[in-house]
Amino acid sequence: MRLKLAPGLAIKNSTIEGKGCFSVAHCRRGRKIAEYTGEKITNAEANRRASRRRLRICAINNRWSLDGSRGGNGTHYINHSCEPSAYMKILYGRILFIALRDIKPGDEITIDYEQTLHSNKKRCTCGAPSCRGTINKMQR
Ligand SMILES: [Zn+2]
């Protein structure tokens, strides 16, 4: 299946991990970058699929998730960073990416995953000065 990218996005090799999602346009702070798309699955199914090495699943609520590896628009390549350029906002069952700062063409779009289906031991390789060392944010 050919990947249909959301407008304004490009997929390129990332210095963080594997391939990443990059902006090809200017995006002002606070503006929507794109919407996350994918196959709608139950969270039980999401947990079953979590054993895959590359996880492209994003939770909408305590019942549903989207799996961007099927029907994703490029936003499923957005990498984690401890100093992200964007954040995820869930609005009426839709998952939106909003710019945390002004984004220039060529900038990698990153978010702080905070909680994933990955183990809490999974190391972070984002390289940010304030990197916390793991992908998941530990609950205190
Ligand atoms: Zn990090």
Could you describe the 3D structure shown?
The structure is a single chain. This protein has 140 residues and is mostly beta strands. It has a single domain (9-111), classed as Beta-clip-like. It is built from one helix and ten strands. It has one helix at 43-49; strands spanning 9-13, 19-23, 32-36, 39-42, 57-59, 64-67, 79-80, 86-91, 94-99, 108-111. It has a four-stranded mixed β-sheet, with no helix packed on it. It has a three-stranded antiparallel β-sheet with strand order 3-9-8, with no helix packed on it. A three-stranded antiparallel β-sheet has the order 4-6-5. A hairpin with a 4-residue loop joins strand 5 and strand 6. The longest helix is centred in the N-terminal third of the chain and has 7 residues, at 43-49. The relative contact order is 0.23. It binds zinc ion.
In a few lines, what is going on in this structure?
The protein is mainly beta and 140 residues long. The chain has one domain (9-111): Beta-clip-like (Beta Complex). Helix content is 5%, strand content 31%.
Helix and strand arrangement:
Blueprint: E1 9-13, E2 19-23, E3 32-36, E4 39-42, H1 43-49, E5 57-59, E6 64-67, E7 79-80, E8 86-91, E9 94-99, E10 108-111
Parallel strand pairs: 7-10
Antiparallel strand pairs: 1-2, 2-10, 3-9, 4-6, 5-6, 8-9
The structure holds zinc ion.
Zinc ion is lined by residues 82, 124, 126, 128, 131-132.
